[in-house]
């Protein structure tokens, strides 16, 4: 299923090796939030996302409906506005 959020990855080491034996650790992780607004799936929130949402405004469209409330509306535009020009870590550079 397509979602309109940028991906985020956090690498964490949750154990150590001591004398050839793996010992587990408890670790609390606070990853960054995935940013909404990438309606075309190119890993960037940009003018192309705005154009897609505007083209489907007031309609049902899964890809343009950023917040997945069933209709493309002002709330979807606000997500794009808030995260405009954000780039996902896995975007082609």
Break the fold down into its secondary structure elements and pairings.
Elements: E1 15-18, E2 21-24, H1 47-55, H2 74-82
Helix pairs in contact: 1-2
Q: What would you say this structure looks like, in words?
A:
The chain is built from 2 helices and 2 strands, in the order ββαα. It has 93 residues and is α+β, with helices and mostly antiparallel strands. The chain has a domain at 33-93: Orthogonal Bundle (Type 1 dockerin domain), CATH 1.10.1330. The longest helix has 9 residues, at 47-55.
Q: Could you give the order of the helices and strands?
A: EEHH
Helix fraction by DSSP (H/I, runs of at least 4): 10-25%
Low-confidence runs of at least 5 consecutive residues = none
| CATH topology-level name of the domain at 33-93 | Type 1 dockerin domain
Shape: elongated
Name of the CATH first level of the domain at 33-93: Mainly Alpha
Give the distance, in angstroms, between the N- and C-terminal Cα atoms.
Answer: 24 Å
